[in-house]
Design goal:
The complex is a heterodimer of chains A (about 220) and B (about 240). By secondary structure, chain A is mostly helical. Chain A has one domain (about 5-225): MetI-like fold (Orthogonal Bundle). In chain A, about 85% of the residues lie in helices and about 0% in strands. Chain A contains nine helices and no strands. Chain B is α/β, with parallel strands linked by helices and about 240 residues long. Chain B has helices spanning about 45-50, 75-80, 95-110, 115-125, 140-155, 170-185, 200-205, 225-230, 235-245; strands spanning about 5-15, 15-25, 30-35, 60-65, 65-70, 80-85, 160-165, 190-195, 210-215, 215-220. The chains are: A mainly alpha (about 220), B alpha/beta (about 240). The interface of A and B includes residues 129, 130 and 145 of A. Bound molecules: adenosine-5'-diphosphate and magnesium ion (MG). Magnesium ion binds near residues 43 and 44 of chain B. Magnesium ion binds near residues 43, 164 and 165 of chain B.
Chain lengths: ~220, ~240
């Protein structure tokens, strides 16, 4: 009974629920913005990485390697606390979105590259032999096939970005985690933290289940 | 007789390896040329240079209907004139048969949906698979897929058709249906260059047969000459090897 009052105190959960919801809304905004911007950046980077002139390819590779190596928390702190020293002052929201986008873009670029490289060379040759322009070859032939291949790893990346939004709380962004810690302080009770954890779970579990389904599906197709 | 395809001094290297050496070749409009030779002799490389799927050395020239084959703005024009059929079909697996055929006329020729569809259906009837229009390539047999690939090439109304071993990936019982379609095409006035191991087809349909070896054209002539009285010992060796296997 004591344990329940401490960790799952229903009156406190009900009282702090609006706070948690406003936090969730911010988490979703940060996550969705970063995911979309990361997709655009990643597609762009992957095309450079595959088809641009050598120096640009080199720059894209360096970019991708750096942003896949750097810990996101370090990047976020650099963006928020270090950049102001050179006159670049971003709001907590933009700091979080910029850091998440830079990293997600690097991972997405590698996912797209692998997807495009998985398309047999005969598809490119047939497109060129028919006289299709580069743009039509990509839009009509290559990307529609690549998208099917990249959906499972892209969904996985989305899950990671959504999870990593919690780091935004360190730059004073009132996201779900930050709201929960504040609610915990106000109520002098950890139930809001448990509430936040359950909300993350409820939100991300279905996506994880979706990825598993994709993977089972792909496995079966491969086996056939 | 002015040449419709003019190949001069064609050289192609992969690193230090010479895949094609000093090829000179003239092909008249409407001519059907079969290219034979052992594997690795440069047959595919030769025809892939004609639509610039392979680049070649700068001193070489290829003209198709007087248009130089080179990177840049002429290239789209050349590729619109030159259709290609591959050994492995290379159909677009995510599109229906009908869409496969309509794509290039829509995107390159700028045809309307209705016109492109009408033409695609006519072509499917012509290659004998009109009833398969709504299926996906993966649902068809190899022979049917290759006939779709031929229809797809024809949809651009090319003046030249390149075939790179179009029947080599097929089960034996399907070779005939594809060769029949190609035989019909040969009578329509389209210029055809066919890399093939089907000696019967070459003898019957070709206006001229080219024998290649080691990246060079060794011998060229009318099929009866090449098959019945080849001059070069290497041609004789090759033919006796393939005809008596
Ligand atoms: N991409 C490539 N890189 C290196 N060598 C190649 C490449 N493509 C073809 N070759 C070589 O060029 C020669 C001619 O090849 P190809 O034209 O495919 O011969 P064929 O079609 O007559 O069998 C072969 O020796 C082959 O190994
Ligand atoms: Mg070949």
């Amino acid at each position: 009974m004591d344990l329940l009052d401490t960790f799952f105190n229903v009156p406190i959960l009900i009282r702090t629920f609006p706070m948690l919801m406003s936090g969730l809304w911010i988490t979703i905004q940060i996550g969705a913005t970063s995911i979309i911007a990361g997709l655009v950046l990643g597609l762009f980077l992957s095309l450079i990485r595959l088809y641009a002139a050598k120096p640009l390819v080199f720059i894209a590779r360096i970019y991708i390697d750096i942003f896949r190596s750097i810990p996101l928390l370090v990047l976020l702190i650099v963006v928020y606390y270090a950049l102001p020293f050179v006159g670049i002052r971003l709001s907590p929201f933009f700091s979080a979105v910029v850091a998440l986008t830079l990293v997600s873009g690097a991972y997405t670029a590698e996912i797209f590259r692998a997807g495009i490289e998985a398309i047999p060379s005969g598809q490119f040759e047939a497109s060129r032999a028919l006289g299709l322009s580069y743009r039509h070859m990509m839009v009509d032939v290559v990307l529609p096939q690549a998208v099917k291949i990249v959906i499972p790893p892209l969904t996985n990346n989305c899950i990671n970005v959504m999870k990593d939004t919690a780091l935004a709380s360190v730059v004073a962004m009132p996201d779900l985690l930050k709201q929960a810690t504040q609610a915990q302080a106000l109520a002098a009770n950890p139930s809001p933290l448990i509430g936040a954890a359950l909300i993350y779970l409820a939100f991300l579990w279905p996506l994880v289940a979706l990825v598993s389904r994709f993977e089972r599906h792909m496995g079966q197709r491969g086996a056939r | 007789m002015s040449s419709f395809i003019e190949i001069r001094n064609l050289n192609k290297h992969y690193g230090a390896f010479a895949a094609l050496t000093d090829i000179d070749l003239d092909i008249a409009e409407g001519e059907v040329v079969c290219v034979i030779g052992p594997s690795g002799s440069g047959k595919s490389t030769l025809i892939r240079c004609i639509n610039l799927l392979e680049s070649f050395s700068k001193e070489s020239t290829i003209l198709v209907d007087k248009i130089p084959v080179e990177p840049g703005k002429h290239l789209a024009q050349v590729r619109a004139e030159v259709g290609m059929v591959f050994q492995s079909f290379n159909l677009f697996p995510h599109m229906t048969v009908l869409r496969n055929i309509m794509l290039a006329p829509l995107r390159v020729r700028g045809l309307s949906e209705a016109k492109a569809e009408k033409k695609a259906r006519e072509l499917l009837d012509r290659v004998g698979i009109g009833e398969q229009a709504e299926k996906y390539p993966g649902q068809l047999s190899g022979g049917q897929q290759q006939r779709v690939a031929i229809a797809r090439a024809l949809a651009m109304e090319p003046r030249v058709l390149l075939f790179d071993e179009p029947t080599s990936a097929l089960d034996p019982e399907m070779v005939g249906e594809v060769l029949d379609v190609m035989r019909d095409l040969a009578g329509t006035g389209v210029t055809m260059i066919v890399v093939t191991h089907e000696m019967g087809f070459a003898r019957q349909v070709a206006d001229r047969v080219i024998f290649m070896n080691g990246g060079k054209i060794v011998e060229t002539g009318k099929p009866e000459v090449i098959f019945d009285a080849p001059k070069e010992p290497r041609t004789r060796d090759f033919l006796s090897a393939v005809l008596n296997h």
